[in-house]
Amino acid sequence: MKKLFLVYGLLAATFMVYIWYYGYRDDKLGGWEEGTAGLVGEIDENYVMVTFQSGLDYWRGSMKGFEDAAQALNVSVEFRGATQYDANEEITVLEQVIARKPAGIAISAINPEALNQTINKAVNAGIPVVLFDSGAPESKAYAFLGTDNYEAGAQAAREMGRRLGGSGKVAVVTQPNQLNHQERTHGFRDTLYKEFPGMAIVDVVDGKGDTLVSEKAAMSVLDKHPEVAGFFATQANGGVGIGQALQMRGLAGKRVVIGFDTDKGTLDMVKDGVINATLAQGTWNMGYWSLLSLFHLHHQTTQPRTNGETIGVHPVPPYSDTGITVVTRSNVEDYYAK
Amino acid sequence: MKKLFLVYGLLAATFMVYIWYYGYRDDKLGGWEEGTAGLVGEIDENYVMVTFQSGLDYWRGSMKGFEDAAQALNVSVEFRGATQYDANEEITVLEQVIARKPAGIAISAINPEALNQTINKAVNAGIPVVLFDSGAPESKAYAFLGTDNYEAGAQAAREMGRRLGGSGKVAVVTQPNQLNHQERTHGFRDTLYKEFPGMAIVDVVDGKGDTLVSEKAAMSVLDKHPEVAGFFATQANGGVGIGQALQMRGLAGKRVVIGFDTDKGTLDMVKDGVINATLAQGTWNMGYWSLLSLFHLHHQTTQPRTNGETIGVHPVPPYSDTGITVVTRSNVEDYYAK
Predict the structure, then answer these.
(1) Minimal Cα–Cα distance from A197 to chain B, Å?
(2) Residue B96 confidence class, pLDDT cut points 50, 70, 90
(3) Contact assignment for A73 to B315 by CB distance below 8 Å
(4) B149-281 sits in which CATH class?
(5) What is the pLDDT of residues A145-191, one digit of tens each?
(6) Which contacts qualify for B66-70: CB closer than 8 Å, 24 or more apart?
(7) ipTM score of the complex?
(8) Chain A residues touching residue B18 (CB < 8 angstroms)
(9) Could you say which of A68, A86, A297, B338 has the lowest number of CB atoms within 10 Å?
(10) Which pLDDT score, from 0 to 100, does residue A62 have?
(11) Which residue of chain B has the CA closest to A69?
């Protein structure tokens, strides 16, 4: 009987230690779980990416970035887009998305003005909106994430200057009426003149964003200035057109060509040495950091404070330059769709 | 005796249920903790912020942002800095920080060149480095987060133009030899000329970043151009100097003054209506997004991929504009240190 009481007493004591120990741990873990540490959302928190002309291969990188961020933050994402290059269709898609009150929307704007009213409607309804790739500066969107086109042109100039040893005449094939292409041309021109005084731009021609038009434009440059040592295309089809012109004239590999973007046609020419380098935009960054920005705007848990007081500043950078990478023969394989 | 055995049996059963239940919960929490969801680091992951002239009130916002991000991500942060405005001291501090191999370093560079070698040493040793507030463009740092000074000047111009109804003559008090101040002046000038054709800049004077020099410079502007309707100061002491000049001439509140930054002197004058508005830099954003960038560089878990293949792009935006907020009498209280 005495022995039994001893066992009974020991058991009760162990039990109490257990309760105390696990109770204590639970408090700690419970507090942690409720979000004092780690950026984590709810799986029913739905963020939507809206693009114009949704079929384009170009969006692949941004979509992957958006998805990667969703996985990292434990939230859901969805992709919507206008099937055609049509502003009204993008507005309609956007209206449908807004009606479902998502946690946030990332938009690539078809042009700088058309979506302003619809974007403002979303923001006024309390839905965070950021723009990526192509912005809408007059809208109420909280942020824009995209390529610094002037800087991209500057990088093209440095690549050109380096490959030509700092001397020679070059030409630009561009779309002179579009803002982003103007900026690329200006960045190229300014940097060439400032950093490579031995070089000159002999011609700036309109390729109209078309391979054939660009090819003819490049031919006319070669006719007028046979000594031209290099070409910079501010747009993908421009680079392919230049490459075709050089191939026809038997000059492929004998002129330096700097292209833009990483469509299959451009990558093939990089692989073959017809285009020496092309500029890849930071599309993954656009998608990934768009979602991170939307997440912070949605949760509002991390609003800027000064000494504990919330002040009227948005907790995301209004502009992020998503960067440029130079693609050459040595890394071109990484850029093919697999 | 039978009764006692019943109690004993029940107790043992309850105990087993307890063990089973808590053991199960532990497994679940353990798996979640290991990071399948949520951006979360380790508490012994140490990120360091290094500033020049560490005592400045100006760093308060960036430090708070860095700390807030550390709490959100469950990592540790530390603040180091040169006690004086001395490039060699900042280099020494940086060398000491590098020697301890932290998870990442955020640096405000004393000037654009002095730290390049030391920054590159850290990056070559595998320590991620980003710059905030003041950059080092030629270094190997992965990103720069700071104010777009040209855009800040543009916002000052819009605030000025709006307050003066689009007409009148204005003057600028600046530091003409410093790049960030040149950019603020250019943004102000370009925007005023483009968006407010009824306005003109009659004088741009050197306040040397000093209150008294700025006061005298503002007086001389008032002597030469008594009709001047507004002043823009590209730096904090400039705004206070202009305010003092106006007070002495009995013109306080009768000229529009747009200041810069949110030191106590400037805020007091905003409160008193001597300075109409001042531009607060997004210092919290600089600190918060610096740590988020470093975290992503350190973990490398979210590198940009195209179809599952890792490519040679850094997973952070190379430049982020951390924004500007206009501080007026209506929100000035939020900006005082408490």
Answers:
(1) 20
(2) very high
(3) no
(4) alpha beta
(5) 999 999 999 999 999 999 999 999 999 999 988 888 999 999 999 99
(6) B66/B106, B66/B287, B66/B288, B66/B290, B66/B291, B67/B287, B68/A302, B68/A305, B68/B284, B68/B287, B68/B288, B69/A302, B69/B287, B69/B288, B69/B289, B69/B290, B69/B291, B69/B292, B69/B295, B70/B291
(7) 0.81
(8) 15, 18-19, 22
(9) B338
(10) 94
(11) B302
